[in-house]
Amino acid sequence: MTLSLFDQFMSPWHMGIPLLAISLVLPWVLFPTPSLRWLNNRMLTFQSWFIARFTQQTFLPLNVGGHKWALLFTSLMVFLITLNMLGLLPYTFTPTTQLSLNLGLAVPLWLATVIIGMRNQPTAALGHLLPEGTPTPLIPVLIIIETISLFIRPVALGVRLTANLTAGHLLIQLVSMAVLVLLPLMPTVALLTAVLLLMLTLLEIAVAMIQAYVFVLLLSLYLQENV
User: Fold this and answer.
1) Domain that holds residue 173
2) Which InterPro entries has this protein been placed in (predicted)?
3) pTM tops 0.70, yes or no
4) How do residues 21-60 score in pLDDT, each as one tens digit?
5) I want to staple 107 with a disulfide (CB 3.0 to 4.6 A). Which of 57, 154, 173, 184 is the partner?
6) How many domains does the chain fold into?
7) Do 220 and 110 contact (CB within 8 A), yes or no?
8) Residue 6: inside a domain
9) In a domain? residue 3
């Protein structure tokens, strides 16, 4: 049976149990629980420092009302980074390559920011649909364009994360297959290709972290418009 390159992105099942659910629960098990001691180990210290810095940088432009989202956004950031990084390990499944999962995260959070804006400041929220100083003949066209762009936001969030991770995994698989094919034929070329594979893996580690940060950062920007 011939396998497709995209078979690695199929959600695995075992004995009728979707392993996607297990892979979504696994990240929370890996992180150490903060202790009540005054001095912690290096892992807990780094974890606390990272969460504090991320929260500070993300919520600095937001007012006090937006700070209520700090726990949710920080947890989502850590969750996405862990899923993306675990997916780079051999023989693992990356849940964030599933568009349904990414849209399931993006749409409710985006909709929550829009509902908050319409509830707290409806005039300002609707004002984003029409830039100030727009000529009168262009008002209906711009309202339609801004409305479409508003509803495209969650789709763009989910597609961006899915496309970047899927492309990276495909590149790694293609280059690794090239290394295996070239190894008995041209060992020197295979060695150079293996170096390329190593550099590509390092790039994918950076992409896994950056895409998780961009996902949460854009949500915080959407929240900033509505609080």
Assistant:
1) 13-33+42-226
2) ATP_synth_F0_asu, ATP_synth_F0_asu_AS, ATP_synth_F0_asu_bact/mt, F0_ATP_A_sf
3) yes
4) 777 777 777 777 767 777 677 878 888 888 889 888 888 8
5) 154
6) 1
7) no
8) no
9) no
